[in-house]
Amino acid sequence: MVIHLLCLLPAIVGALDFMPMVQVTNSGNEGFNGHFIFNLTEDLVGWKIQIDFSKAVTGLTSPVGLEYVKDSSNETVHYLVNKDHTGIQTTNPQFDVMVQGTMKDGNLPSAQAYLQNMGHDNFKPPIPSNTDGTKYNYDEVLMKSIMFYLAQRSGKLPADNPIPWREDSALNDRGQNGEDLTGGWYDAGDHVKFGLPQASAVTLLTWGLLQYKDAYNASGQLDEMYDCIRWSLEWLLKCHTGKNELYIQVGDGNLDHSFWGRPEDMTMDRPSFKVTSDKPGSDVAGEYAAAMAVASIVFKDKDPAFSIKLLNHSKEIYTFGKTYPGLFRDSVKGAGYGTSDYKDEMAVGAGMLYLATNNSQYLTDAESFHQHGNQWGQSWENKYTASMVLLYQITKKDVYKQDIETTFGNWLPGATGPSAVPYTPKGLAYRTKWGSLRHAANQAFLALIAAEAGINPTEYRNWAKSQIGYILGDTGRSYVVGFGVNPPTHEHHRAASCPVIPASCSHDFLDMKYPNPHILYGALVGGPGQNDEYDDVRTDYVRNEVALDYNAGFQGAVADRCRGFKISTYDEAPWEVEEDEALRTVYEANAPLILENRSESSVTSTYNVPLTNDFTVPQLMEQAERLYDRQGHAFRLNLEFGPPVRLPLLGRPPRTPTEPTRKSYQGVISALDSISRRKSRKRNWTSTFPYRSAISSYGKLRMLQFYFDFWDRFVDRSDFQYCEMDTDSAYMALSGPDLISVIKPHLLDTYQRALVGCCRDDFEPHWLPRTCCTKHAQVR
């Protein structure tokens, strides 16, 4: 592990002072009584006392403490820890600890005691520096989110366990026939291992690793991420105990929730639940298959044998779910987190298997399982948003693009109608009160993947950025434990609320007013109410609990933000080729855009931004804007190579990416030149590209934006054609009598809303006049 963490060191009350034993009396039969009276300087949240006697003492007891045997051979040194209901002590009265014991020689002993407050663990991970100069340290967020999953581990922990306040737990978790079911993750602030939400979290986490591996690597968290997801994957594999047998839960929710304490201290029964051919569960089978399939891809080079094992299990589990359709909530009594549909999980499972195998049958299955149209949103229970994004990634079919635009059209600001997601006054997309932040974060993650696939990239990326910004502190507080300004300190989490081991824990620590003794770094809490109201209260499990699925999409979105600022550098352009070779190389090899930064001190840095054939002008603009915002001074934009742009040429339909042309490259260069001229304080630009076409007006850049942000989104390409375009105007032919007649049907409602409402400067799309007020009645 790269993370080097500081050891636990509870505070010693009164520094290194000690208290003598007073009021020592003989109680008969070689027994004695004594008192240690401490004048507290701070409230105790769990405590431990080391007592050094002058002679051997046995049978030590106390009305307020339990003897903790550290060394049974040493009868002069004894340890007491608080009982369940004596751990919290305030500074108002003196803390009187009475002890009773047996002396061996009949002479009263003397003693001195050290009192430790077990409510402080002093554990602080090293924080990576924010070398990107961004508003938030995304490397830190990524590292701490992984730490949250490490804190949720169950079973025998490794020797290099980086969470020092966690120890081995639930070592007797077994299946109904004695199968080893140790390991995995605890679900939330409790200690049940629920298979469906755990597998759902692994699917999103691993999809994020597949999508943003470069960001994890650049942030120094790649190995940690592999270790993180592997812990859960190993448990999911254990759960597959037969061809048509899959364990889906360990632990009883009712028994578990009646206990407030550490998982290390659990003594209740922990029954296991499974699905079989007689008791099917296609929903959980589909999710297990999805998690293992996408994991087989990311481990293919890292650990080929493990990858093959994952893929084989994924195939068999998927076949089981397909052959014996059904919901486990209908067949397995007592199991939690049931769903109302299994086709969404099966769609994602089949889609991931297609990515892993290239077997067309899986793609056929995925498309047949998918449900078209608007979807509620991504959660552990509903996966249709994931399936539409995944299927568009794979097929690029318009039908999935329509699903995405319809669904996200209801999530973005300004939506109306029964399916529109409301917003809090400060800008959170508020789907529901229970874990409001996780829904926005999950949706933001999928919006970023959709943007990566070329769907409304600027709009979706800006929206995702706003939701992640809300979580990290844009409103004045962070909702991530241990990160940022005013983060939660009373999150609903049993282990984090308990004092340092070996002090006893109980329900008193659920109700206490004090912050949790342990900082559950990286955990995303449920979140605020519909009016941005939020109280950091431990008993509020609706707004202040943490869970595996809360962090999953959030972490993927943060990885995207990391990647946006992890731009590798080159000292000089890596290629020098002739004109025709350049065009061919660009198209075949996706050569990069070269961004050169030149400060006033003439220090030059060249940045390599990876591009793909589907990269569009708005994405190029966004990369350039990001670079400028990060550098804060003049930079030079120089296109050595770049992808063909889907820019319609004069008097003819748009070209496809298979037709790289000189004019399409000039379009990209013109856009980038416009940014450089607007942003920089220098104007003496030069270029090594032979077809550079510098322009002096911002107008052409806006025309390009207009094409990509409005025309290409709202109107099918078969329904319009550019006739002529110059710097500040465009002449177009439509296939219908007016504009509204050619708007894509599934976006007609969004278009009409833009014309009649949404009286905001930042509303998208903002290209056409609105009727809300005079200010917005003009085309911008």
From TrEMBL:
Molecular-function GO terms, alphabetical = cellulase activity
Signal sequence range: 1-15
Q: Which SUPFAM superfamilies match?
A: Six-hairpin glycosidases
Glycoside hydrolase family domain sequence ranges: 138-557
User: Among its keywords, does the record have Signal?
Assistant: yes
Which superkingdom heads the taxonomic lineage of this protein's source? Eukaryota
What keywords were assigned to this record?
Carbohydrate metabolism, Cellulose degradation, Glycosidase, Hydrolase, Polysaccharide degradation, Signal
* Catalytic site: D536, E545
> Per the record, what are the reactions this protein catalyses?
Endohydrolysis of (1->4)-beta-D-glucosidic linkages in cellulose, lichenin and cereal beta-D-glucans
- Listed GO biological process terms: cellulose catabolic process
Enzyme Commission number, as recorded = 3.2.1.4
Say which enzyme class the record assigns.
hydrolase
Coiled-coil positions are none
Recorded family membership: Belongs to the glycosyl hydrolase 9 (cellulase E) family.
Q: What is this protein called?
A: Endoglucanase
Q: What is the lineage of its organism?
A: Eukaryota, Metazoa, Spiralia, Lophotrochozoa, Mollusca
